[in-house]
Structure formats: structure tokens, C-alpha cells
Amino acid sequence: MSEKHFIEVEDGEKISAVHHEANSEKWIFFCHGFGSNKKGSYRERAVRASEEGFNAVRLDFRGNGESDGEFEQQFLSDKIADLKACVEYFDPERVFLFGMSFGGKVVFHSAKALDAEAVIGKSPVTYNRIMEKFREAVMEKGSFTLFEDKSIIPGFYDDLDEYSFEETLEELDIPFAIFHGSADTTVHFENSSEAVESFDGEAMLYKLKGEKHSVSDEAEKKIQDMMFSWLENL
Known about the structure:
Blueprint: E1 2-10, E2 13-20, E3 26-31, H1 41-51, E4 55-59, H2 76-90, E5 94-100, H3 102-110, E6 118-122, H4 135-141, E7 144-147, E8 150-152, H5 154-160, H6 165-171, E9 176-181, H7 189-198, E10 203-208, H8 217-232
Parallel strand pairs: 3-4, 3-5, 5-6, 6-9, 9-10
Antiparallel strand pairs: 1-2, 2-4, 7-8
């Protein structure tokens, strides 16, 4: 069973979140990528999570999907605030976080404050340098459209510069798992490899041979199978 909720974040703005119920104290929150939304594969993962004994929540960050706000005004800080508001709204006993692409960056930088027990990243944005390829165009033109109507403005980088993945990794004291395609040209696999090698704790990295940023159905099934097996054995 699933139920949609509209959760107030700040200044009257609300985010949309869907809860897939399970009789469990374990909750997993699914965070979508840059400019994406909670539909499609996130619904599939949430359904699977519920079947595996997790209360699952998939949310739209502000400026995406059914949530309020303009996309270009939503920075990393805002996405972290959205996730925090969502977790606090459901008030779970045990928290697990999943993030795809830029959603991966959100969950890594949120994990400690949310007292998460583990983090899962799918092709995650980790190091800030991953977003550097757009900075010059943004600063020169005042904005840069990545796709459709999704644009970045200078404030995005002003905010991003306040977050250091290196420092977050040093402070992180929970296990994490990363699944990443070897042929990903959006977020290169080497970033995830470096993150795992730099982490002084329990981490798993699984390279999906030949897979790109968006993976095949076969790879997605493999990710889900391995992810829930890994969570079960923590």
C-alpha cells in the first residue's frame, strides 16, 4: 500500500512524497537525481523495498515533479533541507538513505545529521569537481541549461562551495555501498572508486560493466538484489 503526502519545508513550500508501507521499524528514503523526479525506477525500488521489509519513501525535491518551487533556485542546501523535512515528518526509528546521481550527494551530506545507519549511492555525485564542467558557462552567461527547462545559476556554485565531500567522508562513521557503471560519462566511475579508497570504514563498490549513467533493466535488477542483500547483512 502506498500513500502520497505533501510535506511543508519552509516559507509555505511543500514537497511531495510517497510512502510505501511495511510493518517494520526500518525506513529507506529514495532521492532522485538532478532534474529528475520520484517516478519510474524510484517507484520500482520503493515497491521492492516494501517487499523486503522496509518502509520506503520516495520524494520530489523542490523544483521537480509535484513539489513546489522553481528548479534553478534549489541548491544542495535546499535539497538537504527537503530530505531532512521528509525524514522528520515520518519520524522513523531506523534510517537508511539511497541517492542517485546528485541525489547521492544529498544523502552523503545528510547522513550524519539524520543519524542514518547506511547510505547507498547509484552513480553518485560525490566530489564537487564533478560539477565543475558547467561552472564557467554559468558564470559567463548567468545561467546554463542542462536539459529541458533545468538551469543552473551562479548561486548554485556559491552554495556548493560550502560543502566538502572530503570532509564529509572523514566524518562519516557508517557503512556505504556504491553501484556505478563502468561506461558512465556523466559521473565517471573513477570518482566512486576514489571515494571508497579514501574512506576509512566499511564500504562496498560494485562496478557495472558496460553500463552508463542510466543503467539497463538487467543491471537495475542486479543493483536491487545486491543492495538488499547488503543491507540484510550489515
